[in-house]
Amino acid sequence: MPNAIDRQILRIALPAIVSNITVPLLGLVDVAIAGHLGSAAYIGAVAVGGMVFNVAYWLLGFLRMGTSGLTAQAFGRRDLSEVVRLLVRSLGIGLAAAALLLLLQHPLRQAALALVGPPGEVRRLAAVYFDICIWGAPAMLGLYAFTGWYIGMQNSRIPMLVAITQNVVNIVASLLLVYAAGLKVEGVALGTLIAQWAGFLMAAALWAGCYGRLRRHAVWRGLLARGAMRRFFAVNRDIFLRTLCLVAVTLFFTSAGARQGEVVLAVNALLMQLFTLYSYVMDGFAYAGEALSGRLIGACNRPGLRLAVGRLFAWGGIMAAAFTLAYALGGDAFLSLLTDEPHVVRASHSYVGWALAIPLAGTAAFVWDGVFIGATATRAMLLSMSVAAATFFLVFYLLAPALGNHALWLAFLLYLLVRGLVQTGLARSVERKAFGNQPDGHP
């Protein structure tokens, strides 16, 4: 049985890892092309514009996570009518949110640029980039709905294919528009916009081809049922508030490093790439946790859920050991690939021990995040994130006068560790709530 569970975990996790790794390439391609346009202002404009959209879409990521857990549970119950309704609900809310972004695009652009405060020419070009890319909001938020639904249906291959296609389209379209059509920042932005819509249309076409038969299960009478809508919004509200805490910690980490000088800022940015790379892999296993736990809870299979959680933690332990060993042996080589400034690499030696501890500290948080999303235990996720974020800020402000940047890294590690510990403490109550008095199914 463990072998079967392992195969199910890897069947979902591996394509999800590929998808996660390809996502930042969209922004990287834009920056790389802008970097060859003859002025640093183009790089700054794309970086600023990209950051604004990254934060906005990150905050709206609840569309993917909320849809994933609810869909997995409906799929486990074999409630195909609800499976279809969940996709329609998620798409509808995503497109409504996109319409609101489009309606408020001008004040949003002004507020974002005022907050970031780029210099004159960068500000003008960033506004051009924003005005074009904002029209990709319906595609991006619609794609979040599709991605969450596919993962809930235990299918991470389609999101992987969509992510790869988006990157290919982005590269080709941007290069043609910039170098063949002679456009500059407009060409970079249009290339991104085309890639976003290509991804959304591909996700919709693959749904029609692979899942179109589900149309016969569509029963629209319960689409806006009060109970279902209340649960949908409650799940997404908790995930949104949790994401706000996560964004606050992430942005503060960067700004606190910046206040300590450009060398410390560069060191923190480089070492944070070690966490980012690890998180791409562990998010793949979190996606597997979402899909499997939701399906097993929907099927009332308590023994199966416990077995799946145990195997997810086993894979998490393997990944933590592998990343710790890889970073210990090749950390300097990896950092040297990211920068040709030897003094920055040397300065990182004082803090590299903190980065080596990240995989061990963060494994439980990643695994439980996936399981809790599948269980739609979003209130427990919000509680654990709130306690962890409070720990982060408390530790930093208490120890920063004495420890400086070491206090920032200690606070970040405790933030990861506390998330996992609180979720571990809540896991039994989450399980009881998920199954209630329902009898165990058969694994």
Can you put this structure into words, describing what you see?
The chain has 443 residues and is an all-alpha fold. The protein has 2 domains: 1-224, no CATH class; 225-443, no CATH class. It has 16 helices and no strands. The protein has helices at 2-34, 40-59, 62-76, 80-103, 105-116, 120-133, 137-152, 157-180, 185-211, 226-258, 262-298, 302-338, 342-348, 352-374, 378-403, 405-435. Helix 11 (262-298) crosses helix 13. The protein is globular and about 55 Å long.
Instruction: Specify the oligomeric state.
Output: single chain
How large is the count of helical segments? 16
Radius of gyration: 22 Å
What's the domain count? 2
Give helix % range. Answer: over 70%
Choose one word for the global shape. Answer: globular
β-strand amount? under 5%
- The overall pLDDT average reads 86
Strand count, sense and closure of the main sheet? none
Order of helices and strands: HHHHHHHHHHHHHHHH
Outline the low-pLDDT stretches: none
**SS class:** mainly alpha
Distance between the termini: 9 Å
Q: How many β-strands, per DSSP?
A: 0
